[in-house]
Amino acid sequence: MEPVAPGMKKEETQPTGSDGDGEQQPNKSQSKQADRQSEPAEPSHADEHPERTVPVQTKGDSAGSDPALLEKKVEEMTLEEKPAELTLEAIAASIKEGKAKNIIVMTGAGISTAAGIPDFRSPGTGLYDQLGSYNLPSPTSVFELDYFMEHPEPFFHLTKQLWPASLKPTVAHYFIKLLHDKGLLLRCFTQNIDTLDHVAGLPADKIVEAHGTFATSHCLKCQEQYSQDWVKEKVHSDELPVCEKENCGGVVKPDVVFFGERLPSRFFSMVDEDLPICDLLIVMGTSLKVQPFASIVNRVTCQKLYINLEDPRHQMDFLSLMMGLSSEPDNSKEVFLQDTCDDGCQKLANLLGWRDQLRKMFKDEHKILEDKLAKATSSAIKGKVSKIQASSGKVPGNLDGAKSQQEDKKLKKTPDSSGAKKCTPKRDDGKGAKRDG
Fold first, then answer.
1. What is the C-alpha to C-alpha distance for residues 282 and 106, in angstroms, rounded to an integer?
2. Residue 330, pLDDT score
3. How far is 316 from 287, CA to CA, in rounded Å?
4. Can you list the positions of beta strands (E) in 178-333?
5. Cα dist. 149→161, 201, 250, 258, 294 in Å?
6. Quick one: what percent of the chain has pLDDT higher than 90?
7. Cα(first)–Cα(last) distance of the chain, in Å?
8. pLDDT digits (tens, 9 = 90+) for 323-359
9. Strand 212-219 to 252-256 pairing
10. Could you tell me whether strands 103-107 and 280-284 are parallel, antiparallel, or unpaired per DSSP bridges?
11. CA 114 – CA 109 distance, rounded (Å)
12. Cα–Cα–Cα angle for 52, 56, 57, nearest 5°?
């Protein structure tokens, strides 16, 4: 169905008189007769084809004299022309048959909740609710630059929640990676700033971080750049990241997009490049409330799969209405799967015959990440111990100074292998050392 212009009702778009192609419409008497007949079983069909009217009796048309037969005829015509609803099975078939080979995936916070990272808006558990102790003017103030300049603490509290010390991607992240490995992923557009797409092994050129990234940070005063590891260490030590450049002292902000800031230029260039060739759009874990990210779904005409706990297709903001975009779901081209992102991806993987591959990838990659974390933790502990020892004057490597002293005393009392008494220096009244034996 073509979108209806803002402020105009569907009825106002229906033509009267001729249909514009010279075909004459029924006269008033015929229309009155048609009005007396039963309405079609699918009233929405009349909106889609306003030029169609209920047939009237003509010479040689026996159905025109029988209202019941006429109603049946109209119903059959409607059912025949109504497009079948798209299903998850049909989506899987399109992928398996090679009809969908330039797939775009759009992701939001819901894709990372299974990793232990809360989403933003869930009542009671969402990140916005967790900031209540800071008495923010509004929950979204944490992402407003003016507020951040005066009160950066709430943002870094939230950052610590978004940036756990150990990050492990979810099943949904690895499903996207599997699409890439099979040469089917055109691009992954994400609102997330948790970097889990990178951790899952997705190449950087396949990711468009629409709302910025934690990979780099800059001082808001002198623009000095800082690494992800530097900021992460500060955040997890509950320290405010402050520029270390001489005579600066500005706050260091990760390169994430705040409200009112322009999205990265790469977002716009990739939208223009990718959308015309997209043949399947998969939307996961987003409510589609934030523009211009959400507008992507209205700029493609291909099949669409939505995986979310709530249907995001009814979210329509003022900008979309002004653009004449429709929020009415088209079930002939769209599927809404009400499920978690992980479970939804597993269902699609099962239909594609990828279940075992996805499970193996998830298990193997998590094992690698756990081994890396254990090694990093061990190195960090050793590094801290070495610093403590260096500051106390002890030799690095002796993890227990008391134990070393006990071993020294033991050596003084232990005879050597020849049975002779081990010689140890003795001091007298301070005028010199005497040796026994």
1. 6
2. 73
3. 11
4. 185-190, 207-209, 212-219, 225-227, 252-256, 280-284, 303-308
5. 20, 34, 10, 12, 28
6. 42
7. 109
8. 555 556 677 899 999 999 999 999 999 999 999 999 9
9. antiparallel
10. parallel
11. 10
12. 155
- How far apart (Å, rounded) are the C-alpha atoms in residues 63 and 66? 5
Of 222, 57, 192, 54, residue with least CA distance to 112 = 192
Q: Retrieve residue 355's tokens.
A: 């279940």
Q: What is the pLDDT of residues 272-290, one digit of tens each?
A: 999 999 999 999 999 998 8
Residue 107: which H helix or E strand, with range? strand 103-107
The rounded distance, in Å, linking the Cα atoms of 72 and 62 is 13
| Segment among 138-147, 303-312, 387-396 with least mean pLDDT | 387-396
Which pLDDT tens digit goes with each residue over 120-130? Answer: 666 766 666 66
Question: Are the C-beta atoms of 149 and 251 separated by less than 8 Å?
Answer: yes
Q: What is the 3-state secondary structure (H, E, C) of 137-156?
A: CCHHHHHEHHHHHHCCHHHH
DSSP notation for 378-411: HHHHHHHHHHHHHHHTPPTT-S-HHHHHHHHHHH
The tokens for 242 are 């402050």
Q: What is the residue type of 377? A: T
The strand order across the sheet containing 212-219 reads 225-227, 212-219, 252-256
207/365 Cα distance (integer angstroms) = 19
Average pLDDT of the residues in 377-389: 64
Which tokens is 327 given?
């929020």
Burial group, residue 159, by CB count within 10 angstroms (0-12, 13-18, 19+): buried
426-427 and 433-434 beta bridge pairing: antiparallel
The pTM of this model reads 0.65
**What 3-state DSSP class applies to 231?**
helix
What angle is formed at CA 37 by the lines to CA 32 and CA 38, rounded to 5 degrees? 140
23 vs 385, residue with greater confidence: 385
More confident residue, 96 or 54: 96
Q: Which of 169, 226, 225 is nearest to 201 (CA)?
A: 169
Name the token pair of 418: 């020849």
Cα 97-102-105 angle, rounded to 5 deg: 110
Residue 153 vs residues 160, 238, 408: alpha-carbon distances, Å: 11, 10, 51
Closest C-alpha to 108, from 324, 318, 297 = 297
Choose the catalytic residue: 49, 211, 236, 314.
211
What's the rounded Cα separation, in Å, for the pair 197 and 204? 9
Any catalytic annotation for residue 211? yes
Contact present, 226 and 245 (Cβ < 8 Å): no
- Biggest CA–CA distance in the chain, Å, is 141
Cα–Cα distance for residue pair 434/274, rounded to 1 Å: 88
